[in-house]
Amino acid sequence: MARSQEVKKDEADTVAAAMSGIQSLSRTMAGFCGGPHMTWRQTLVEFDGGWVFLISAGEGAYLAVSSAPDVDMADITFRMQQLVGQLGKALSTPPRENSGIQA
């Protein structure tokens, strides 16, 4: 839906697809953390050069942030939750519908 100015569109599309996959894997792993009714809230991935935070931002939408390795993790998570709270439904994306067109 949106990206930082420094991120090119093709790169943003690639990252969005990767984040979708990570979110899907994270939701699938919820059962590993306590049962089938666990709700996914956030995924955090660490790399040599920093972190990627991924949180739910509404129906069908997620917010991802990359950061340097020395970031205040609690502050980033708090600010992400604030942003999602402020933008609310504007971040939701309705599910795609079948148009009936055969490919």
Topology:
Elements: H1 9-28, E1 42-47, E2 50-58, E3 61-67, H2 73-87
Protein name: Regulator of Ras-like GTPase activity (Roadblock/LC7/MglB family)
Organism: Streptomyces iranensis
Domain Roadblock/LAMTOR2: 4-66
Low-confidence stretches: none
CATH class: Alpha Beta
* CATH architecture descriptor name: 2-Layer Sandwich
Strand order of the largest sheet: 1-2-3
Whole-number total of structural domains: 1
Gyration radius from CA atoms, angstroms: 15 Å
Through-space gap between termini: 25 Å
Helix/sheet category: alpha+beta
DSSP strand content: 15-25%
What is the gist of this entry?
With 103 residues, the protein is α+β, with helices and mostly antiparallel strands. The protein has two helices and three strands.
Question: Could you please describe the fold and organization of this structure?
Answer:
The protein is α+β, with helices and mostly antiparallel strands and 103 residues long. It has a single domain (9-88), classed as Beta-Lactamase. It is 34% helix and 21% strand. It has helices at 9-28, 73-87, and strands at 42-47, 50-58, 61-67. It has a 3-stranded antiparallel beta sheet with strand order 1-2-3, sandwiched between helices. Strand 2 and strand 3 (61-67) form a beta hairpin. The longest helix has 20 residues, at 9-28. It is globular, with a radius of gyration of 15 Å.
